[in-house]
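Changelog-adjacent note: as of this version, every example in the card shows the full chain rather than a window. The one below runs 158 residues end to end.
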Amino acid sequence: MKTQNLIGLDAAGAAQVVESLSRLLADYQVFYTNLRGFHWLIEGPDFFVLHAKFEELYDNVAEKVDEIAERMLTLGGKPENRFSHYLQHATVKEVSGVSNGREALRNILETYSYLLGQERQVLAQASEQGDEGTVALMSDYIREQEKLVWMLTAYAAK
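Full-length structure tokens:
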């Protein structure tokens, strides 16, 4: 018996949401790797602040990766686990060699701006399908990330 039947969702609608979540998962996986690189390579006067902040961010993104994959499974999908797949399907691009805090923050803010747009699209799609679980997940991400963007923007303005 399929999970989406037990939770009362239409299989075709759930499959559409799973596809959107799959793209979001790919973007998050690439973003996670970028954040790890920023954490490792950061230099300069803001090292201690940014090194710790980037670790906090990648830990948060790792949690979201797991939540997205588990939501896909709940909806009857199967999350991909190959990084080659993520690179082919992600819009977020790999970044390498960034040691400048301002450049890293610019990339992070641009990525969150993109992710917020994607999450709003997933939220709207899930809402159309009556998928309140995915709506709640995306709503939580959006609320959290809007505040984070505000805080990172305020920090970068110094």
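Structural remarks: The longest helix spans residues 11-41.
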